[in-house]
Amino acid sequence: MSYFEGIAPVRYAGPEGDGDLAFRHYDPSEVVAGKTLEEHLRFAVAYWHSFAWPGGDPFGGQTFDRPWFGDTMEHARAKADAAFDLFEILGVPYFCFHDADVRPEGASFAESKRNFDEIVDLFARKMEGSKVRLLWGTANLFSSRRFMSGAATNPDPEVFAYAAATIKACMDATHQLGGQNYVLWGGREGYETLLNTDLGRELDNMARMLSLVVDYKHKIGFKGTILVEPKPQEPTKHQYDYDVATCYGFLKKYGLEDEVKLNIEQGHAILAGHSFEHELAMARTLGVLGSIDMNRNDYQSGWDTDQFPNSVPEVALAYYEVLKGGGFTTGGTNFDAKLRRQSLDAKDLVAAHVGAMDVCARGLKAAAAMLEDGGLEAARADRYAGWDAAGDLVSGSLEDIAARVVDRGIEPQPRSGRQEILENYVNRFV
């Protein structure tokens, strides 16, 4: 019997629809700005939070009792059955996974890989009879104690080698399943104290691993995008992939900026002291915006709570940056989000995704309407209009610019940034 027994596929019911399990704003076939909402949003379910997370937190253990929890291949196959049932109920086009999410750990690397390969083959068979596809795969290089000092940045070269072998297996699986991207998330690529850290060597080794990944992508003919995911502080105190700007500087230093883009998460942006739209705007401006993990953090907590999104204004500003950058190509909207520890039922897991998909749909439609209206872009153009007639400031020397000030005798006068007016403008759409 299915874990989701009695839960019908979720349908679009319109804004006035009844029931907890109906879309009110997400009609996958609705056309907005030239594409359907399904094509714009490219929703994906995160295997780890939805099917592998037991409901623990830093102060308490498992609260969820799922029939597929266990360390056998039978449990792993049951987990896959439940996952594809949920994909079907939600009608999502994509899912994402780490290797450790989908298979039990073996007594050796070889055994773990055999377990993984068997589940990947099972995924392939299930995908033949389903519309769901793989948005991206990735490797878990942070949970095991072997990675306590990092993976690519580990001081032990054998851990580097183990990480490389794991990445290769996950890239092969992603390629086999037709994945649209491959993600590297450096959960412990950083340090806790400089007293025992060779910073330069660790950065060089992290770049070498990423270069090996890029080389292997081309060798096997993988057409997807390689993505790096920024994350600050948690769990490592000083992360090398702190935020978008830090990651771009790293890619630029090692000549990888044309080969790698970024997978950006709302919760990680908040932990870095930024807003989600800031990180997306920075990535768009630098040309490295690839995909997003959509969630939210509790603003009263100083850690990554990974809650499902529920703020249309925040989501609208995020999708504004995505749409302004031309929309997703290989990327999409992955719900890197988990239920609260007290939300125990199958219905809770479905309802969480339904609500999040509706919030994203409302946000994207608001973003598209703002772009079409052009109010924000017009305000920005007006604010910087002086630069359109100031070519000598762009091409002139420091002496030329100084002479301009002396010769013209102009005393610049401050102009309003109109922030409140623009905030009111945004609120008209959300």
From TrEMBL:
<dbReference type="InterPro" id="IPR036237">
    <property type="entry name" value="Xyl_isomerase-like_sf"/>
</dbReference>
<keyword id="KW-0119">Carbohydrate metabolism</keyword>
<comment type="similarity">
    <text>Belongs to the xylose isomerase family.</text>
</comment>
<comment type="subunit">
    <text>Homotetramer.</text>
</comment>
<feature type="binding site">
    <location>
        <position position="229"/>
    </location>
    <ligand>
        <name>Mg(2+) 1</name>
    </ligand>
</feature>
<dbReference type="GO" id="GO:0009045">
    <property type="term" value="F:xylose isomerase activity"/>
</dbReference>
<feature type="binding site">
    <location>
        <position position="336"/>
    </location>
    <ligand>
        <name>Mg(2+) 1</name>
    </ligand>
</feature>
<keyword id="KW-0479">Metal-binding</keyword>
<feature type="binding site">
    <location>
        <position position="304"/>
    </location>
    <ligand>
        <name>Mg(2+) 2</name>
    </ligand>
</feature>
<feature type="binding site">
    <location>
        <position position="265"/>
    </location>
    <ligand>
        <name>Mg(2+) 1</name>
    </ligand>
</feature>
<feature type="binding site">
    <location>
        <position position="265"/>
    </location>
    <ligand>
        <name>Mg(2+) 2</name>
    </ligand>
</feature>
<keyword id="KW-0460">Magnesium</keyword>
<keyword id="KW-0859">Xylose metabolism</keyword>
<dbReference type="GO" id="GO:0000287">
    <property type="term" value="F:magnesium ion binding"/>
</dbReference>
<feature type="binding site">
    <location>
        <position position="268"/>
    </location>
    <ligand>
        <name>Mg(2+) 2</name>
    </ligand>
</feature>
<feature type="binding site">
    <location>
        <position position="293"/>
    </location>
    <ligand>
        <name>Mg(2+) 1</name>
    </ligand>
</feature>
<dbReference type="InterPro" id="IPR013452">
    <property type="entry name" value="Xylose_isom_bac"/>
</dbReference>
<dbReference type="InterPro" id="IPR001998">
    <property type="entry name" value="Xylose_isomerase"/>
</dbReference>
<keyword id="KW-0963">Cytoplasm</keyword>
<keyword id="KW-0413">Isomerase</keyword>
<dbReference type="GO" id="GO:0005737">
    <property type="term" value="C:cytoplasm"/>
</dbReference>
<feature type="active site">
    <location>
        <position position="101"/>
    </location>
</feature>
<dbReference type="GO" id="GO:0042732">
    <property type="term" value="P:D-xylose metabolic process"/>
</dbReference>
<feature type="active site">
    <location>
        <position position="98"/>
    </location>
</feature>
<protein>
    <recommendedName>
        <fullName>Xylose isomerase</fullName>
        <ecNumber>5.3.1.5</ecNumber>
    </recommendedName>
</protein>
<feature type="binding site">
    <location>
        <position position="306"/>
    </location>
    <ligand>
        <name>Mg(2+) 2</name>
    </ligand>
</feature>
